[in-house]
Amino acid sequence: MLRNEFIDKLRDGLKMLPQEDIDSAVSYYEEYFDEAGAENEQSALNEIGDPSAVVSKIIGEYSLKEIESEKSDEKKPNDSSIKLLWIVLIALLLSPIAFPLAIASFAVAFAFVAATFALLFAFFMVGVALSVAGIATLVATFATLFVHLPTAIFMLGASLLMLCVGIAFILVGWWVIRSVIRLITKVCANLLVRRGAK
Amino acid sequence: MTFGLTSTLLDACTLGVVSKEATYGYDLTQKVKASVEVSESTLYPVLRRLFKEGLLETYDEPFDGRNRRYYKITSKGEDLLGLYTEEWNNFKAKIDGLLKGGENSAAQ
């Protein structure tokens, strides 16, 4: 592999990270090859080999660090944890996979994750549906208020009950989804760090 | 090398080398490689992490018409190195004890 090829691959592998992290890695390796000198450059390149091991490790460590800082700062926008999950999943897919077996186990893991998310999403949507029904019933309560009071009271009770259960479902569902995203990201990031370690 | 290097141990070794004098990536890699088997690519992620955790700091110095980025240990890094050294000595004494036959021969 040529020096330019190495740098291009490195930059490409890290492209989802903040610019500062990319620049730092690129300038480190540029400097490294400069230090090795023209006569040692090729042997240094040969020994480092494919940049994907470095890429895996950098992304894995970046993600672990991000999860830590997210935990301490709950106000961070939620899309960042989904983006992080995306980054580690792509990095895992692109990292050198030694055996076809790894691809199979990856497929099984992916199916499992997808099923879990479908289940959690259904749970979450039950909460949304209950809340919407609760609000609708609450509106309808006012319509019956002056027609038949006992019906109105019954409807008020029913609507509040639906609202409470719905909101509880939403909150619990949301919390579980966030935790699961974090857990998966963490597992993947650890895999990346270890895979890069050799 | 029969015994492997854990990532914490590699952190400790890196801090140790840098604590003696500020150094740059290539030089550090050569120094570490002289004693233990590490791939040339492993040290950058380590340096980056130690830097982000505030254990190392960097400064640039022009050399030969380009830049050299030096890594220097911080006081937080010195503290952690002290802790690692102590832990390592403890661990080493225990293993030495076991290698010499176990029981209570480990220094307590």
Task: Summarize the structure in short.
By secondary structure, chain A is mainly α.
Structural class of chain B, by secondary structure, is alpha+beta
Radius of gyration of chain A (CA) equals 26 Å
**Can you tell me the residue ranges of chain A where pLDDT is under 50 for at least 5 consecutive residues?**
none
Q: How many angstroms separate the termini of chain B?
A: 29 Å
Instruction: Note the beta-strand portion of chain B.
Output: 15-25%
Elements of chain B, N to C (H/E): HEHHEEH
Structure summary, number of beta strands of chain A: 0
Topology record:
The complex is a heterodimer of chains A (198) and B (108).
Chain A: H1 3-13, H2 19-48, H3 52-72, H4 79-94, H5 100-145, H6 149-197
Helix pairs in contact in A: 1-2, 3-4, 3-6, 4-6, 5-6
Chain B: H1 7-20, E1 23-24, H2 25-35, H3 43-52, E2 56-63, E3 66-73, H4 75-99
Antiparallel strand pairs in B: 1-3, 2-3
Helix pairs in contact in B: 1-3, 1-4
Task: Walk me through this protein's architecture.
The complex is a heterodimer of chains A (198) and B (108). By secondary structure, chain A is mainly α. Chain A is built from 6 helices and no strands. Chain A is elongated. Chain B has a 3-stranded antiparallel β-sheet with strand order 1-3-2. In chain B, helix 1 crosses helix 3 (43-52) and helix 1 packs across helix 4 (75-99). Chain B is elongated, with a radius of gyration of 16 Å. Chain B is of the alpha+beta class. Chain B is built from 4 helices and 3 strands, in the order αβααββα. Classes of the chains: A mainly alpha (198), B alpha+beta (108).
